[in-house]
TrEMBL record, chain A:
Protein name: Sortilin N-terminal domain-containing protein
InterPro entries, alphabetized: Sialidase_sf, Sortilin_N, WD40/YVTN_repeat-like_dom_sf, Xyloglucanase_GH74
Organism taxonomic ancestry: Bacteria, Pseudomonadati, Pseudomonadota, Gammaproteobacteria, Lysobacterales
PANTHER family: EXO-ALPHA-SIALIDASE, XYLOGLUCANASE (EUROFUNG)
Region (Disordered): 516-541
Record keywords: Repeat
Keyword Repeat attached: yes
Superkingdom assignment: Bacteria
Automatic annotation (TrEMBL), chain B:
Signal peptide region: 1-20
Keywords, in A-Z order: Signal
Name under which the protein is recorded: Outer membrane lipoprotein-sorting protein
Amino acid sequence: MKKFTSMILAGLLVPAINEAKPVKVDSYTFGGLQARSIGPAVMSGRISALDATHGDVPVIYVGTASGGLWKSKDGGIGFEAIFDEHNQSIGAVQVDDNNPELVWVGTGESWVRNTVSVGDGVYLSKDGGDQWQHLGLQTTERIAAIEVSSQSSDTAFVCATGALWNDSAERGVYRTTDQGSSWEKVLYLDERTGCSDLVMDPNNPNIIYAGMWEFRRYPDYFTSGGKGSGLYRSVDGGDSWQEMTNGLPASEKGRIALAIADSQSTTVYATVESENTALYRSDDMGKNWQRKSDAGMVQMRPFYFGELQVDPADPERVYKPSFITVTSVDGGETFSSMFSGGFSIPVHPDHHALWINKDNPNQLVLGTDGGVYISYNKGGNWRMVGTLPVSQFYHVSHDDQWPYHVYGGLQDNGSWEGPSRAPGGIKPGDWNSIGMGDGFWAFVDKHDHNIIYSEYQGGKLLRLNRTVGELKNIPPVAQGEEEDLRFNWNTPLLVSEAKPGTIYYGSQYLHRSTDRGESWQTISPDLTTDDDKRQRQATTGGLTIDNSTAENNATIYTIAESLLDPDLLWVGSDDGLIHLSRNGGDQWQNVGKNIKGVPKGTWVSRITAGFHNAGTAFVTFDGHRSGDMKTHTYRTDDYGHSWQRLAAEDLGYAWVLKQDRVNPDLLFLGTEMGLYISMDGGANWARFKENLPKVAVHDLVIHPTEHDVILATHGRGVYIIDDISPLRALTREKLTENVVMLPSRPSVMVEGAALQSFSGGDDFIGDNPSEVAVISYYLKKRHMFGDMKINILDENDEIITTLVAGKRRGINRVDWPMRLKAPKFPPSTSLVPGFVGPRVAEGTYKVELIKGKKTYYSTVELVPDPRSEHSREDRLAQQKLSMQLYDAINDLTFRLSQLKDVVTQLDERSDLSRSAEKKAEQFEQAYNDLNARFTATKKGMITGESKLREQLGTLFGNVVGYSGRPSQTQYQQAEELIAEVSVALDAGQALLDKQLSGLNKALGDEAAIQLLDRATWDEKNGLGLATPPVNKAWLVNGAHIHH
Amino acid sequence: MKKQLILMVGLLGSSLTVSAEQSLDEVLAEYVEARGGLEAIENTKTMRTTGKMVMGPMEAPFSFTYKAPDKVYTTFEVQGMKGIQAYDGETGWQLMPFMGKPDPVLMSDDELKQVKNQGEIEGPLINAEAKGTTLELIGSTEIEGTPVIEIKATKKNGDVIHVFLDEEYKLEVMTRAKVSAMGQEVEAETYFSDYKEVGDPASPVAHSMAVKINGNMMQNMILEVIEFNVDVSDDLFAMPVAETAQDAAEVTD
């Protein structure tokens, strides 16, 4: 009794306590507001690791540089992302050969290019990737390899490359003997030296080889090699390690890659970076080494191409993935390319991972900077996997056509443009290449959509004539006394929205062109530190020089303009300076010096101007290149005189922060760890994760008329959050209400659809936005009890249709197909194209949300397709004929149903007199004859039989399927068929007139047939008015009334 | 009756605030109580429901009939044609007249497995031990932002279904299971809402179910009428002979 009483008391208290609590804003508040992936996968992205089960149809795991882990269960046709809620940078993936359901993942890519991401340790799945357990080693930052003992699934070794931009003791070789519950660092040299590769003898798991590598990256410099580097071996399961030196270079070494011959495990190969990088071979388990080939592809970029494989059945066949993959069939003495001499290649260059099927060494899977390729003949030819949308966008922009297109550049995959929607989804062929190299910013010209600006690494600016396909190089060059121009790897380009016709470009100076790049003016002094100590790119690379412009520093990195004041320009540099000009570049002020709390010299990753106050700007700093992983975000409201640090500390290093165009409190922050949204001006943040993985968001743009947020993810292509109108309306005050009706943008009644094609499952198809009307509302709490539904009403308050309501906490979005229900067809033996009802006419419709006893109202606006070539009169004509046919079909169906119902009633009578039975048989026969006259009754799959029902249904489908005026032929056919419906109705009525009274007489008054009436039939089939007209308390879009 | 439900739910909600960590048995006891008690659940000898399936712009009326211990009969209608899937305790069969094939055919193993699962109307958490189902309390998590308790049910045949109970009301918010179709495995999630009391003694029954396959919304099922313990003939579930199948597949209204 005591417990019961306390429960009641607690029950009474709970609501009061709940009301006092502020409403939690978290990822679920955004609820049904989903991101959609539009890809592309046509060029895919960088693959960092591969593994697979062996056998006829291998289960393939693909680890990507920054797009997570993917799995194919069908040998590489279709792939699914299986790691979306975890770190997206994959350094190693290893399937346990003892139990292929055990999959180990080491996060943090070890191909340490300038734009590499960071990992957070080791994960294990025990069910083939469905669920993941984090096993620690969180601060290792990057992992190059994992090996599992062939004798025990509990024992595994992790090759931790470690931190790239700072000293760290969390690196080297780790061992677990309890499946990751605990770890022991068994090989460690110093804070600058990590593990670059690790292999285990397949016949004796106590024999392990590890490459140790001293390396470091700085914002302006990379060095590979040093005293720490060396090749180590353990023969006691990792307890002790010895450096192997006999035959290897005595001088300083750099990155080492290893491969062991499965078929002859005494043979081990290694590529060893040194002053003269080469392949080495040992046939005595590493004791002695012989120098083999030093071919170009063996020597190329050891920090980036540290992969080596041996054919599992042939110890003399060695694969060296490099810029391209080269093959040796003579034990490493010589290499030849499988790609027609090396440069006529059907495969994207830059190869990082290669898997060979142990059961069938003809089958290879190759990971490149441009996705995955599969070969079935040892690399003789390749098929690209088309289902991996792991493209690494740096930036994104859009044009102003409908549907709009997006533009952007990608790591090693040039620049591309594609539509935000397309019939049947966004297909590979919808994307077009618009640039080259490593692409970054890309814009369409504001005056001429045929002109596109793009760039590639180190400041190479291009202008494309889209129609002709001709590129012109248009970068500025140093003028007069100016120093040589320094362009960042990712040089900032701004095609002005405030001053259409103007483009800005940043070296250490800001450049402006008003003639499409034909000529340039320098409109600033050097806006960087111009510090010589930050300009070491000419000697970058360490043992292997690698001056690709990736380390260019002391450069302008971000340019912003104000739409409120076209002469207001902001510039930020990669060495920590922020400058402002309020007169179009005539004078500049260093306003970054007023910022407190961010280490000096920290890279300014983005400046964006506010949309609501000319003095407002938002700045993100990115310190990860010096080991600072914090989120640095600031705003100013007084032109940079003072700055406020926003409350975002541990959301990942920041790439971009933008204020909403409509709601000044609504902020979007892209970081290395995803997209974050603040609804209160930056005081609180929640990760947006509805269909958006924890992927780096390098750029985002808010479409001014579609109200979409377009995301450039560096690893998962472009995502779009369609129509953020509901989010804008969900103010702090509204969040406390139980139900809030929210506005949506006008719904376009899209015309056209996908035509017939069957492409198989080998293509990624980007999602389209909802092509229906969307009704939006907010629920403070999930709906559990009682009815909840949505009615759509016309101008006479009559219910057009009823929709299933969304019930989740947060924002809900419910689709209304903008149609009546499908017509009701009589039973037949064939289907007709009448699965959907006629579209309603364009205009504003009322929305009634019923939740339990309360009702809430809003409106939804339907507008014609902007591309429509049909006049409003033509669309209305289509709607009118659709409705005539719709009514005719329902009339026919009702009449036949009415007759069939009589037959059914008669069948249910078991005590008929002989006279009544005879009359019943006559009636049923007459019904069957009538039914067969107007509907198809032949059995069979393809009978070709077409009666009134089928002809009517086909015509209905054809008229409804076209948005404009029906053809004269269709009108003519409709007239004939509707006339025939009248004949059918009359024939049915005649049958009733002729036989029903006699039938009822034979049945007797009490047993007389109850004739089905139209109102009952309509209601039963949801075709009539289900409820009376509603209260006419209509309101402005987005507001609501409680009843 | 509705007041009883509200009180019951209120009590469950308050009990959560009393004990933050519960054992599996405690959660199950509250679940059974939330469902109206074991007697109400076990007394269901037959069930008949009608409603509609909604798939985007398309709607299809459907009916579902159950007779203890395992007979099920489901119909759905498209353009006046009625599809049927049924299991009579021994034979699983279906009739799909849409492509001109009005004769019943036997189900595949995958289909049979699914239709048999439909016969477990009380759900995997009720009388689990007797059915050979192993239950494991996974713990607290969230479904679409609603706090829930996750229970993993492993059936005798190895099938696994995860049940997510609303932390406050102890009723199903969602179930997740792997389903096999054409030899391929897909993940099916069913979201429950619109609970209303049905029967005497009353128990809350979800009148709205949203089904996602591999994360994509496939269909909503709206239950309009639910009746317990009505007369249902065994004949309904038996596979008809070909001559009578045409009639079975025609919709009379």
